[in-house]
Design brief:
three-stranded mixed beta sheet, alpha/beta
Protein backbone atom coordinates (compact mmCIF):
# COMPACT_ATOMS: atom_id res chain seq x y z
CA UNK A 1 0.00 0.00 0.00
CA UNK A 2 1.57 3.24 -1.07
CA UNK A 3 1.82 6.04 1.41
CA UNK A 4 0.03 9.29 0.78
CA UNK A 5 -0.01 12.61 2.56
CA UNK A 6 -3.47 13.50 3.80
CA UNK A 7 -4.90 16.95 3.25
CA UNK A 8 -6.98 17.76 6.33
CA UNK A 9 -10.37 19.20 5.45
CA UNK A 10 -10.54 21.03 8.78
CA UNK A 11 -7.81 23.30 7.37
CA UNK A 12 -10.15 24.59 4.60
CA UNK A 13 -8.25 23.10 1.67
CA UNK A 14 -8.99 25.92 -0.77
CA UNK A 15 -9.33 29.64 -0.16
CA UNK A 16 -13.03 30.47 -0.16
CA UNK A 17 -13.93 32.29 -3.33
CA UNK A 18 -15.82 34.94 -1.34
CA UNK A 19 -12.57 35.81 0.41
CA UNK A 20 -10.66 35.83 -2.84
CA UNK A 21 -13.39 37.93 -4.42
CA UNK A 22 -13.30 40.56 -1.66
CA UNK A 23 -9.51 40.77 -1.80
CA UNK A 24 -9.32 40.90 -5.57
CA UNK A 25 -12.34 42.88 -6.70
CA UNK A 26 -13.87 45.05 -3.94
CA UNK A 27 -17.27 45.19 -5.62
CA UNK A 28 -20.72 44.61 -4.14
CA UNK A 29 -23.08 41.79 -5.07
CA UNK A 30 -25.32 44.00 -7.16
CA UNK A 31 -27.15 43.67 -10.45
CA UNK A 32 -24.96 44.25 -13.51
CA UNK A 33 -25.83 47.56 -15.22
CA UNK A 34 -26.41 45.68 -18.50
CA UNK A 35 -29.30 43.88 -16.79
CA UNK A 36 -30.39 46.65 -14.45
CA UNK A 37 -33.37 47.86 -16.46
CA UNK A 38 -34.81 44.35 -16.46
CA UNK A 39 -34.55 43.70 -12.72
CA UNK A 40 -38.05 44.90 -12.08
CA UNK A 41 -39.38 42.59 -14.81
CA UNK A 42 -39.54 38.83 -15.04
CA UNK A 43 -36.33 38.19 -16.97
CA UNK A 44 -32.85 39.65 -17.51
CA UNK A 45 -32.10 41.46 -20.76
CA UNK A 46 -28.53 41.91 -22.00
CA UNK A 47 -27.00 43.64 -25.00
CA UNK A 48 -24.69 41.59 -27.21
CA UNK A 49 -22.74 42.68 -30.26
CA UNK A 50 -25.53 41.29 -32.48
CA UNK A 51 -28.57 42.46 -30.52
CA UNK A 52 -30.46 42.16 -27.26
CA UNK A 53 -31.25 38.83 -25.60
CA UNK A 54 -33.67 37.89 -22.83
CA UNK A 55 -32.83 35.07 -20.45
CA UNK A 56 -34.02 33.71 -17.12
CA UNK A 57 -33.41 34.40 -13.46
CA UNK A 58 -32.47 31.41 -11.33
CA UNK A 59 -32.06 32.63 -7.78
CA UNK A 60 -28.94 34.77 -7.72
CA UNK A 61 -27.98 33.82 -11.27
CA UNK A 62 -29.00 35.02 -14.70
CA UNK A 63 -29.03 32.26 -17.33
CA UNK A 64 -29.18 32.52 -21.12
CA UNK A 65 -29.66 29.44 -23.30
CA UNK A 66 -29.34 29.08 -27.06
CA UNK A 67 -27.46 32.26 -27.97
CA UNK A 68 -26.33 32.05 -31.62
CA UNK A 69 -22.61 32.68 -31.89
CA UNK A 70 -22.18 31.95 -35.61
CA UNK A 71 -24.12 31.39 -38.82
CA UNK A 72 -25.57 27.95 -39.40
CA UNK A 73 -22.86 25.88 -41.17
CA UNK A 74 -25.22 24.54 -43.82
CA UNK A 75 -25.29 24.57 -47.61
CA UNK A 76 -22.27 26.42 -48.95
CA UNK A 77 -21.04 26.96 -45.38
CA UNK A 78 -20.66 23.24 -44.69
CA UNK A 79 -16.93 22.48 -44.23
CA UNK A 80 -16.09 26.17 -44.20
CA UNK A 81 -14.55 28.30 -41.42
CA UNK A 82 -17.05 29.53 -38.86
CA UNK A 83 -18.90 32.60 -40.14
CA UNK A 84 -20.34 35.50 -38.07
CA UNK A 85 -24.03 35.50 -37.23
CA UNK A 86 -26.14 38.34 -38.58
CA UNK A 87 -27.50 40.97 -36.21
CA UNK A 88 -31.18 40.76 -35.21
CA UNK A 89 -33.87 43.28 -34.42
CA UNK A 90 -35.80 43.38 -31.19
CA UNK A 91 -35.06 41.10 -28.24
CA UNK A 92 -34.08 37.47 -28.91
CA UNK A 93 -35.57 34.97 -26.47
CA UNK A 94 -32.76 32.82 -25.04
CA UNK A 95 -34.66 30.79 -22.48
CA UNK A 96 -34.36 27.27 -23.95
CA UNK A 97 -31.44 25.14 -25.04
CA UNK A 98 -30.89 25.07 -28.78
CA UNK A 99 -30.83 21.83 -30.84
CA UNK A 100 -27.70 19.71 -30.50
CA UNK A 101 -25.24 19.08 -33.34
CA UNK A 102 -25.63 16.17 -35.73
CA UNK A 103 -24.40 12.90 -34.22
CA UNK A 104 -25.11 9.20 -34.36
CA UNK A 105 -22.70 7.33 -32.04
CA UNK A 106 -23.74 7.79 -28.39
CA UNK A 107 -20.86 6.20 -26.44
CA UNK A 108 -23.37 4.08 -24.57
CA UNK A 109 -25.42 6.43 -22.41
CA UNK A 110 -22.95 9.31 -22.63
CA UNK A 111 -24.70 11.42 -25.28
CA UNK A 112 -27.52 11.64 -27.76
CA UNK A 113 -30.17 11.26 -28.91
CA UNK A 114 -29.22 10.69 -32.53
CA UNK A 115 -29.58 13.89 -34.54
CA UNK A 116 -29.21 15.07 -38.16
CA UNK A 117 -29.25 18.76 -37.22
CA UNK A 118 -26.49 20.97 -38.65
CA UNK A 119 -27.87 24.31 -37.39
CA UNK A 120 -26.37 23.99 -33.94
CA UNK A 121 -23.81 26.73 -33.25
CA UNK A 122 -25.27 28.10 -30.03
CA UNK A 123 -23.89 28.85 -26.58
CA UNK A 124 -25.21 29.22 -23.04
CA UNK A 125 -24.21 31.65 -20.29
CA UNK A 126 -24.58 31.30 -16.51
CA UNK A 127 -23.65 34.45 -14.61
CA UNK A 128 -24.00 35.78 -11.06
CA UNK A 129 -26.12 38.91 -10.68
CA UNK A 130 -23.26 41.21 -9.73
CA UNK A 131 -21.93 44.66 -10.44
CA UNK A 132 -20.56 44.83 -13.99
CA UNK A 133 -17.36 46.45 -12.70
CA UNK A 134 -16.58 43.26 -10.78
CA UNK A 135 -14.94 41.77 -13.88
CA UNK A 136 -15.60 38.15 -13.05
CA UNK A 137 -13.44 35.46 -14.61
CA UNK A 138 -14.97 33.70 -17.60
CA UNK A 139 -14.93 29.90 -17.59
CA UNK A 140 -15.47 28.46 -21.09
CA UNK A 141 -16.19 24.72 -21.15
CA UNK A 142 -15.79 22.31 -24.10
CA UNK A 143 -17.96 19.21 -23.75
CA UNK A 144 -16.50 15.77 -24.36
CA UNK A 145 -17.63 12.96 -26.61
CA UNK A 146 -14.75 11.97 -28.86
CA UNK A 147 -15.45 15.01 -31.06
CA UNK A 148 -18.23 12.95 -32.65
CA UNK A 149 -20.97 13.23 -30.02
CA UNK A 150 -22.02 15.19 -26.94
CA UNK A 151 -23.91 18.41 -26.26
CA UNK A 152 -23.62 21.47 -24.03
CA UNK A 153 -27.19 21.04 -22.77
CA UNK A 154 -26.11 18.39 -20.27
CA UNK A 155 -23.59 20.63 -18.51
CA UNK A 156 -25.30 22.75 -15.85
CA UNK A 157 -22.86 25.57 -15.14
CA UNK A 158 -24.88 27.01 -12.26
CA UNK A 159 -22.75 25.61 -9.42
CA UNK A 160 -19.50 26.85 -10.93
CA UNK A 161 -21.07 30.26 -11.53
CA UNK A 162 -22.81 30.54 -8.16
CA UNK A 163 -20.17 29.07 -5.85
CA UNK A 164 -17.17 30.31 -7.81
CA UNK A 165 -18.49 33.77 -8.75
CA UNK A 166 -17.61 33.19 -12.38
CA UNK A 167 -19.29 33.62 -15.75
CA UNK A 168 -19.67 30.12 -17.23
CA UNK A 169 -20.05 29.55 -20.97
CA UNK A 170 -20.97 26.18 -22.52
CA UNK A 171 -21.59 25.60 -26.23
CA UNK A 172 -22.14 23.20 -29.11
CA UNK A 173 -19.62 22.77 -31.92
CA UNK A 174 -19.56 20.76 -35.14
CA UNK A 175 -18.94 17.07 -34.56
CA UNK A 176 -17.79 14.00 -36.44
CA UNK A 177 -17.38 14.21 -40.20
CA UNK A 178 -19.08 17.62 -40.25
CA UNK A 179 -16.61 19.08 -37.77
CA UNK A 180 -13.36 17.23 -38.33
CA UNK A 181 -12.58 16.36 -41.93
CA UNK A 182 -9.40 16.66 -43.94
CA UNK A 183 -10.11 15.94 -47.61
CA UNK A 184 -7.99 17.20 -50.49
CA UNK A 185 -10.77 18.91 -52.45
CA UNK A 186 -11.94 20.86 -49.40
CA UNK A 187 -8.38 21.56 -48.29
CA UNK A 188 -7.56 23.12 -51.68
CA UNK A 189 -10.29 25.77 -51.49
CA UNK A 190 -8.03 28.40 -49.90
CA UNK A 191 -9.55 28.54 -46.41
CA UNK A 192 -8.65 27.07 -43.04
CA UNK A 193 -9.67 23.42 -43.10
CA UNK A 194 -9.85 20.03 -41.36
CA UNK A 195 -10.45 21.21 -37.77
CA UNK A 196 -13.79 22.98 -38.29
CA UNK A 197 -14.93 22.13 -34.77
CA UNK A 198 -11.82 23.83 -33.42
CA UNK A 199 -12.66 26.93 -35.47
CA UNK A 200 -16.13 26.89 -33.86
CA UNK A 201 -14.51 26.83 -30.44
CA UNK A 202 -12.31 29.77 -31.35
CA UNK A 203 -15.40 31.63 -32.59
CA UNK A 204 -16.88 31.16 -29.11
CA UNK A 205 -13.72 32.58 -27.57
CA UNK A 206 -13.95 35.54 -29.94
CA UNK A 207 -17.61 35.99 -28.92
CA UNK A 208 -16.48 36.07 -25.30
CA UNK A 209 -13.95 38.78 -26.08
CA UNK A 210 -16.72 40.94 -27.56
CA UNK A 211 -19.48 40.21 -25.07
CA UNK A 212 -18.08 39.12 -21.70
CA UNK A 213 -18.36 42.58 -20.13
CA UNK A 214 -22.11 42.68 -20.79
CA UNK A 215 -22.48 39.64 -18.53
CA UNK A 216 -20.17 40.97 -15.78
CA UNK A 217 -17.17 39.02 -17.10
CA UNK A 218 -13.59 40.05 -17.76
CA UNK A 219 -12.47 39.30 -21.35
CA UNK A 220 -8.85 39.53 -20.21
CA UNK A 221 -9.34 36.68 -17.72
CA UNK A 222 -10.70 33.70 -19.64
CA UNK A 223 -10.14 30.05 -18.71
CA UNK A 224 -10.69 27.38 -21.35
CA UNK A 225 -11.23 23.82 -20.18
CA UNK A 226 -12.83 20.56 -21.13
CA UNK A 227 -13.08 16.87 -20.40
CA UNK A 228 -12.01 14.01 -22.69
CA UNK A 229 -12.37 15.37 -26.25
CA UNK A 230 -12.83 18.75 -24.58
CA UNK A 231 -9.45 18.24 -22.94
CA UNK A 232 -7.86 17.33 -26.28
CA UNK A 233 -9.43 20.38 -27.92
CA UNK A 234 -8.29 22.67 -25.10
CA UNK A 235 -4.77 21.33 -25.62
CA UNK A 236 -5.06 21.99 -29.37
CA UNK A 237 -6.20 25.55 -28.69
CA UNK A 238 -3.20 26.05 -26.41
CA UNK A 239 -0.88 25.31 -29.35
CA UNK A 240 -3.02 27.03 -32.01
CA UNK A 241 -1.63 30.35 -33.23
CA UNK A 242 -5.20 31.38 -34.07
CA UNK A 243 -6.19 31.16 -30.39
CA UNK A 244 -3.35 33.34 -29.12
CA UNK A 245 -4.70 36.02 -26.78
CA UNK A 246 -8.20 34.54 -26.59
CA UNK A 247 -7.73 32.88 -23.17
CA UNK A 248 -5.29 32.99 -20.27
CA UNK A 249 -5.59 29.61 -18.50
CA UNK A 250 -6.26 26.03 -19.55
CA UNK A 251 -7.69 22.89 -17.93
CA UNK A 252 -6.98 19.42 -19.35
CA UNK A 253 -9.47 17.07 -17.71
CA UNK A 254 -8.75 13.47 -18.71
CA UNK A 255 -6.60 12.63 -21.69
CA UNK A 256 -4.20 14.23 -24.11
CA UNK A 257 -3.33 12.87 -27.53
CA UNK A 258 -1.31 14.14 -30.44
CA UNK A 259 -2.83 15.38 -33.68
CA UNK A 260 -2.46 13.19 -36.76
CA UNK A 261 -0.44 14.29 -39.81
CA UNK A 262 -2.37 15.99 -42.60
CA UNK A 263 -1.54 13.21 -45.06
CA UNK A 264 -3.11 10.66 -42.72
CA UNK A 265 -6.22 12.79 -42.37
CA UNK A 266 -6.58 13.22 -46.11
CA UNK A 267 -6.30 9.47 -46.62
CA UNK A 268 -9.24 9.04 -44.24
CA UNK A 269 -11.04 11.84 -46.06
CA UNK A 270 -10.66 10.06 -49.38
CA UNK A 271 -12.00 6.86 -47.83
CA UNK A 272 -15.06 8.80 -46.70
CA UNK A 273 -15.49 10.42 -50.15
CA UNK A 274 -15.26 7.01 -51.80
CA UNK A 275 -17.83 5.53 -49.40
CA UNK A 276 -20.09 8.50 -50.18
CA UNK A 277 -20.02 7.67 -53.88
CA UNK A 278 -17.96 10.75 -54.74
CA UNK A 279 -14.62 10.84 -56.47
CA UNK A 280 -11.42 11.09 -54.46
CA UNK A 281 -8.60 13.62 -54.63
CA UNK A 282 -8.55 17.40 -54.96
CA UNK A 283 -11.05 18.02 -57.77
CA UNK A 284 -13.71 20.65 -57.02
CA UNK A 285 -16.23 18.04 -58.14
CA UNK A 286 -15.45 16.06 -55.00
CA UNK A 287 -16.19 19.04 -52.75
CA UNK A 288 -19.44 19.72 -54.59
CA UNK A 289 -20.47 16.09 -54.31
CA UNK A 290 -19.80 16.04 -50.57
CA UNK A 291 -21.71 19.28 -49.98
CA UNK A 292 -24.68 17.93 -51.91
CA UNK A 293 -25.07 15.06 -49.44
CA UNK A 294 -27.82 15.28 -46.86
CA UNK A 295 -26.94 15.32 -43.18
CA UNK A 296 -28.64 11.95 -42.74
CA UNK A 297 -26.46 10.46 -45.49
CA UNK A 298 -23.35 11.76 -43.74
CA UNK A 299 -24.53 10.38 -40.40
CA UNK A 300 -25.14 6.98 -41.99
CA UNK A 301 -21.48 6.96 -43.04
CA UNK A 302 -20.28 8.33 -39.69
CA UNK A 303 -21.17 5.12 -37.90
CA UNK A 304 -23.89 3.53 -35.84
CA UNK A 305 -25.24 4.12 -32.35
CA UNK A 306 -22.65 1.72 -30.96
CA UNK A 307 -19.56 2.49 -33.09
CA UNK A 308 -17.89 5.11 -35.27
CA UNK A 309 -16.88 4.43 -38.86
CA UNK A 310 -13.14 3.95 -39.47
CA UNK A 311 -12.71 7.20 -41.41
CA UNK A 312 -14.10 9.47 -38.67
CA UNK A 313 -11.29 11.91 -37.86
CA UNK A 314 -10.22 13.99 -34.91
CA UNK A 315 -7.45 16.57 -34.49
CA UNK A 316 -5.34 16.99 -37.63
CA UNK A 317 -2.06 18.90 -38.02
CA UNK A 318 -3.43 21.08 -40.81
CA UNK A 319 -0.60 23.63 -40.63
CA UNK A 320 -2.75 26.68 -39.86
CA UNK A 321 -5.15 25.90 -37.01
CA UNK A 322 -2.86 23.24 -35.54
CA UNK A 323 0.83 23.58 -36.48
CA UNK A 324 2.13 21.01 -38.94
CA UNK A 325 4.61 19.77 -36.32
CA UNK A 326 1.69 18.59 -34.17
CA UNK A 327 0.61 19.14 -30.60
CA UNK A 328 3.26 17.09 -28.78
CA UNK A 329 6.16 18.58 -30.74
CA UNK A 330 4.80 22.05 -30.05
CA UNK A 331 4.84 21.39 -26.32
CA UNK A 332 8.28 19.84 -26.38
CA UNK A 333 9.65 22.75 -28.39
CA UNK A 334 8.00 25.39 -26.23
CA UNK A 335 5.97 26.60 -29.22
CA UNK A 336 2.58 27.16 -27.63
CA UNK A 337 0.56 29.86 -25.90
CA UNK A 338 2.18 29.89 -22.46
CA UNK A 339 -0.25 30.02 -19.54
CA UNK A 340 -1.03 28.25 -16.23
CA UNK A 341 -2.41 24.74 -16.76
CA UNK A 342 -4.38 22.27 -14.65
CA UNK A 343 -3.95 18.74 -15.96
CA UNK A 344 -5.33 15.51 -14.59
CA UNK A 345 -6.83 12.09 -15.17
CA UNK A 346 -9.07 9.66 -13.33
CA UNK A 347 -7.74 6.48 -11.77
CA UNK A 348 -9.71 4.04 -13.92
CA UNK A 349 -10.12 5.84 -17.24
CA UNK A 350 -10.63 2.72 -19.34
CA UNK A 351 -13.55 1.35 -17.35
CA UNK A 352 -15.79 3.77 -19.25
CA UNK A 353 -14.94 2.15 -22.57
CA UNK A 354 -15.32 -1.33 -21.12
CA UNK A 355 -18.73 -0.27 -19.82
CA UNK A 356 -19.74 0.82 -23.32
CA UNK A 357 -18.71 -2.56 -24.75
CA UNK A 358 -20.70 -4.45 -22.14
CA UNK A 359 -23.68 -2.09 -22.50
CA UNK A 360 -23.99 -2.90 -26.21
CA UNK A 361 -23.24 -6.63 -25.92
CA UNK A 362 -26.23 -8.97 -26.29
CA UNK A 363 -26.72 -10.40 -23.80
CA UNK A 364 -24.71 -8.12 -21.54
CA UNK A 365 -21.74 -10.11 -20.34
CA UNK A 366 -18.41 -9.22 -18.71
CA UNK A 367 -15.33 -9.02 -20.97
CA UNK A 368 -13.47 -12.25 -21.66
CA UNK A 369 -9.77 -13.06 -21.69
CA UNK A 370 -9.97 -13.67 -25.43
CA UNK A 371 -11.40 -10.19 -26.01
CA UNK A 372 -8.67 -8.65 -23.85
CA UNK A 373 -6.01 -10.57 -25.75
CA UNK A 374 -7.47 -9.43 -29.08
CA UNK A 375 -7.55 -5.79 -27.94
CA UNK A 376 -3.89 -5.86 -26.92
CA UNK A 377 -2.57 -7.46 -30.11
CA UNK A 378 -4.83 -5.37 -32.37
CA UNK A 379 -4.02 -2.09 -30.64
CA UNK A 380 -0.26 -2.54 -30.32
CA UNK A 381 0.70 -5.28 -32.76
CA UNK A 382 1.44 -8.89 -31.91
CA UNK A 383 4.83 -8.41 -30.25
CA UNK A 384 4.04 -5.26 -28.27
CA UNK A 385 0.58 -6.61 -27.46
CA UNK A 386 2.19 -9.64 -25.83
CA UNK A 387 4.35 -7.28 -23.77
CA UNK A 388 1.23 -5.47 -22.59
CA UNK A 389 -0.45 -8.76 -21.64
CA UNK A 390 2.67 -9.79 -19.73
CA UNK A 391 2.67 -6.51 -17.79
CA UNK A 392 -1.05 -6.82 -17.02
CA UNK A 393 -1.76 -10.58 -16.83
CA UNK A 394 -5.31 -11.66 -16.06
CA UNK A 395 -3.84 -13.85 -13.30
CA UNK A 396 -2.68 -10.72 -11.48
CA UNK A 397 -6.17 -9.23 -11.10
CA UNK A 398 -9.50 -10.30 -9.67
CA UNK A 399 -11.25 -10.18 -13.06
CA UNK A 400 -10.48 -9.77 -16.75
CA UNK A 401 -12.17 -6.37 -16.56
CA UNK A 402 -9.74 -5.10 -13.92
CA UNK A 403 -6.68 -6.32 -15.85
CA UNK A 404 -7.96 -4.70 -19.04
CA UNK A 405 -8.89 -1.51 -17.17
CA UNK A 406 -5.38 -1.24 -15.72
CA UNK A 407 -3.71 -1.71 -19.12
CA UNK A 408 -6.05 0.59 -20.98
CA UNK A 409 -5.96 3.28 -18.31
CA UNK A 410 -2.18 3.36 -18.11
CA UNK A 411 -1.93 3.51 -21.90
CA UNK A 412 -4.11 6.63 -21.76
CA UNK A 413 -2.74 8.42 -18.70
CA UNK A 414 1.02 7.96 -19.15
CA UNK A 415 1.30 10.28 -22.19
CA UNK A 416 -0.45 12.98 -20.16
CA UNK A 417 1.92 12.27 -17.30
CA UNK A 418 4.85 12.82 -19.69
CA UNK A 419 3.35 16.02 -21.12
CA UNK A 420 2.77 17.35 -17.60
CA UNK A 421 6.48 16.94 -16.92
CA UNK A 422 7.40 18.71 -20.17
CA UNK A 423 5.03 21.59 -19.51
CA UNK A 424 6.03 22.00 -15.86
CA UNK A 425 9.45 23.35 -16.82
CA UNK A 426 7.83 26.05 -18.94
CA UNK A 427 4.56 27.14 -17.28
CA UNK A 428 2.79 26.66 -13.93
CA UNK A 429 1.20 23.19 -13.88
CA UNK A 430 -1.16 21.75 -11.28
CA UNK A 431 -1.54 17.98 -11.72
CA UNK A 432 -4.20 15.73 -10.22
CA UNK A 433 -5.77 12.28 -10.25
CA UNK A 434 -9.46 11.83 -9.50
CA UNK A 435 -9.65 8.72 -7.35
CA UNK A 436 -13.09 8.25 -5.76
CA UNK A 437 -13.67 4.52 -6.28
CA UNK A 438 -17.39 4.60 -5.46
CA UNK A 439 -18.78 7.37 -7.63
CA UNK A 440 -22.30 6.94 -9.01
CA UNK A 441 -22.60 5.39 -12.46
CA UNK A 442 -25.07 6.59 -15.08
CA UNK A 443 -24.91 3.18 -16.78
CA UNK A 444 -27.49 0.60 -15.74
CA UNK A 445 -26.26 -2.23 -13.55
CA UNK A 446 -24.40 -4.79 -15.65
CA UNK A 447 -23.24 -8.31 -14.76
CA UNK A 448 -20.01 -8.34 -12.77
CA UNK A 449 -19.06 -4.79 -13.75
CA UNK A 450 -17.10 -2.58 -11.32
CA UNK A 451 -17.31 1.11 -12.24
CA UNK A 452 -14.57 2.50 -9.93
CA UNK A 453 -13.20 5.97 -10.83
CA UNK A 454 -14.17 5.74 -14.49
CA UNK A 455 -13.55 8.15 -17.36
CA UNK A 456 -16.29 10.86 -17.36
CA UNK A 457 -17.34 9.96 -13.80
CA UNK A 458 -15.83 13.16 -12.41
CA UNK A 459 -18.04 15.44 -14.56
CA UNK A 460 -20.92 15.21 -12.08
CA UNK A 461 -18.70 16.75 -9.38
CA UNK A 462 -18.44 20.00 -11.35
CA UNK A 463 -21.76 20.04 -13.21
CA UNK A 464 -24.65 19.09 -10.88
CA UNK A 465 -26.61 15.95 -11.73
CA UNK A 466 -24.64 15.35 -14.89
CA UNK A 467 -26.17 12.21 -16.29
CA UNK A 468 -24.56 11.49 -19.62
CA UNK A 469 -27.40 12.66 -21.81
CA UNK A 470 -31.04 11.60 -21.87
CA UNK A 471 -30.12 7.91 -21.86
CA UNK A 472 -28.19 8.07 -18.60
CA UNK A 473 -29.31 7.38 -15.04
CA UNK A 474 -28.90 10.12 -12.44
CA UNK A 475 -27.76 9.21 -8.92
CA UNK A 476 -27.15 11.72 -6.17
CA UNK A 477 -23.68 12.19 -4.74
CA UNK A 478 -23.16 11.08 -1.14
CA UNK A 479 -22.54 13.68 1.55
CA UNK A 480 -18.79 13.02 1.39
CA UNK A 481 -18.89 13.30 -2.39
CA UNK A 482 -20.79 16.58 -2.12
CA UNK A 483 -17.97 17.85 0.06
CA UNK A 484 -15.46 16.79 -2.59
CA UNK A 485 -17.63 18.41 -5.26
CA UNK A 486 -17.59 21.70 -3.35
CA UNK A 487 -13.83 21.52 -3.00
CA UNK A 488 -13.30 20.81 -6.70
CA UNK A 489 -15.61 23.62 -7.77
CA UNK A 490 -13.65 25.96 -5.50
CA UNK A 491 -10.34 24.74 -6.93
CA UNK A 492 -11.51 25.01 -10.57
CA UNK A 493 -12.90 28.53 -10.09
CA UNK A 494 -9.96 29.67 -7.95
CA UNK A 495 -7.84 28.66 -10.91
CA UNK A 496 -10.08 30.74 -13.17
CA UNK A 497 -9.62 33.72 -10.86
CA UNK A 498 -5.86 33.53 -10.29
CA UNK A 499 -4.25 30.70 -12.27
CA UNK A 500 -3.81 28.87 -8.96
CA UNK A 501 -6.39 26.30 -7.69
CA UNK A 502 -5.48 27.24 -4.11
CA UNK A 503 -6.47 30.83 -4.81
CA UNK A 504 -3.32 31.96 -3.03
CA UNK A 505 -0.17 30.11 -2.00
CA UNK A 506 0.92 26.52 -2.63
CA UNK A 507 -1.32 24.54 -0.28
CA UNK A 508 -3.09 22.14 -0.27
CA UNK A 509 -2.36 21.65 -3.97
CA UNK A 510 1.36 22.16 -4.67
CA UNK A 511 2.48 23.34 -8.07
CA UNK A 512 3.79 20.37 -10.03
CA UNK A 513 7.43 20.66 -11.06
CA UNK A 514 9.03 17.47 -12.37
CA UNK A 515 12.63 17.50 -11.14
CA UNK A 516 15.06 14.72 -10.38
CA UNK A 517 15.67 14.00 -6.69
CA UNK A 518 12.86 16.32 -5.65
CA UNK A 519 9.30 15.20 -4.79
CA UNK A 520 6.64 16.54 -7.09
CA UNK A 521 3.00 16.07 -6.24
CA UNK A 522 -0.32 15.17 -7.78
CA UNK A 523 -3.44 15.99 -5.82
CA UNK A 524 -5.38 12.75 -5.35
CA UNK A 525 -9.04 13.80 -5.32
CA UNK A 526 -10.92 11.26 -3.27
CA UNK A 527 -13.06 10.68 -0.19
CA UNK A 528 -13.09 10.87 2.73
CA UNK A 529 -9.91 12.98 2.55
CA UNK A 530 -7.91 14.32 -0.36
CA UNK A 531 -4.28 13.24 -0.38
CA UNK A 532 -1.01 14.09 -2.08
CA UNK A 533 0.47 11.57 -4.47
CA UNK A 534 4.16 11.85 -5.34
CA UNK A 535 5.35 11.88 -8.91
CA UNK A 536 7.17 8.58 -8.29
CA UNK A 537 4.04 6.95 -6.84
CA UNK A 538 1.96 7.93 -9.85
CA UNK A 539 4.61 6.68 -12.27
CA UNK A 540 4.95 3.36 -10.44
CA UNK A 541 1.23 2.69 -10.07
CA UNK A 542 0.54 3.34 -13.74
CA UNK A 543 3.71 1.68 -15.06
CA UNK A 544 4.65 4.78 -17.03
CA UNK A 545 8.27 3.64 -17.49
CA UNK A 546 6.96 0.62 -19.40
CA UNK A 547 4.75 2.78 -21.63
CA UNK A 548 7.53 5.31 -22.23
CA UNK A 549 9.59 2.52 -23.79
CA UNK A 550 6.72 0.99 -25.70
CA UNK A 551 5.21 4.25 -27.01
CA UNK A 552 7.73 7.09 -26.65
CA UNK A 553 6.39 10.60 -27.26
Amino acid sequence: MKSKTAVGRNMRPFVAIETLYSVTVCAGFLLAPAMAHAQSGSAPVVNTDKGKIRGLYSGDLAEFFGIPYASAPIGKLRWMPTQPHAAWQGVLQTTQFAPICAQITTLGVFAGPVSNNEDCLFLNVYTPILDQSSKLPVFVWIHGGGNFDGEANDYDGSKLARQGKAVVVTFNYRLGLLGWLAQASLDAEGHAFANYGLLDQQAVLQWVQKNARNFGGDPTNVTLGGQSAGSLDTSANVVSPLASGLFERAIFESLLTDSIPLASGERLGDEFAKAAGCETGASPRVAACLRNMTASQIMSLQGTVSASAPYVQDLTSDGTIIPARGIYASYKGGQFNHMPIMSGTVHDEYNFFLAIDEYFSKPRTPPTAAQYDSWATTSFGTDDGRKVLAQYPVSGYQTVQLAWDAAGTDYFVCPQYAINAILSSQVPVYAYEFNDQHIPSYFPKMPGFQTLAYHTGDIQFLFPSWHGGPLGITHKLSSQEMTLSNELVSAWTNFAWTGNPNGLGDSPWPRYVAKRNQPSYYLSETVPTMTLLTDAQFEQEHKCSFWAKLLPL
